[in-house]
Amino acid sequence: MATHFLADTAVLTGRTLRHVTRSVDTIVTTAVTPIAMMLLFVYVFGGAIDTGTVPYVNYMLPGILLITIASGIAYTAFRLFTDMRSGIFERFQSMPIARSGVLWAHVLTSIAAIAISLVLVVGVALLMGFRSGAGVLDWLAVAGILLLFTLALTWIAVIPGLTAKTLDGASGFSYPLIFLPFISSAFVPTASMPGPVRFFAEHQPVTSIVDTIRNLFTGQPVGGDIWVALGWCAGILVIAYALADLTYRRQIS
């Protein structure tokens, strides 16, 4: 059964990857908005924000990486919505393939496409002066956190991709997720925020994830933030996967 699932998922992933490679602009578009934000914040607002001895591009890059992921998952919902409306899911149901392989193919394609966008963003950050004192293990930890965060948000994207009535509805859900880093420690220290906003910023998932990645980039101790960040990512992933699986079963029943 496991071999059957893996083989079917590999074939279906190849199909969705081919769709992405035929429209590389989706990957570029995913990276363009975060890069534009990075340029704006560093060269326009960065001088007015006190981050101590840390260059502002280093300070805000973790938040930009999370925005890149939030932007990329909109295309996951878009691709799922397109498949649902084209009738391809009905054809898949008539074939002897693992049903969950269809969803996993879209998820794995999302991870691959977003990974390329993240590399593009980091490349531009390096040109803007980003430097990291992180070792190999620190970079692997950053990659692991970003992967887990991507998985969590991608499974969230599956739900509107399956249930949306319009294309705008399928991709529009990502806007609140893109906005969330702005109410966190991603771009300004939370100490500068008014009371209620500061409370929300310090207790929402993005802040712990951003702080953890920032400390890993600088080679500083991450403390308890890493466990909070991993707990948020894992919790969101489990809930999103369960809801996405339930939604999928209802849609194809």
From TrEMBL:
One of its GO terms (biological process) is response to antibiotic. The chain crosses the membrane at residues 27-49, 61-81, 102-127, 139-161, 173-192, 226-244. Keywords: Antibiotic resistance, Cell membrane, Membrane, Transmembrane, Transmembrane helix, Transport. GO terms for molecular function: ABC-type transporter activity. One of its GO terms (cellular component) is ATP-binding cassette (ABC) transporter complex. It is found in: Cell membrane; Membrane. It is a multi-pass membrane protein. Pfam families: ABC2_membrane. The keyword Nucleotide-binding does not apply. Residues 25-251 form the ABC transmembrane type-2 domain. The keyword Phosphoprotein does not apply. Belongs to the ABC-2 integral membrane protein family. PANTHER family: NODULATION PROTEIN J. This is Transport permease protein. It comes from Pseudosporangium ferrugineum. The lineage of its organism: Bacteria, Bacillati, Actinomycetota, Actinomycetes, Micromonosporales.
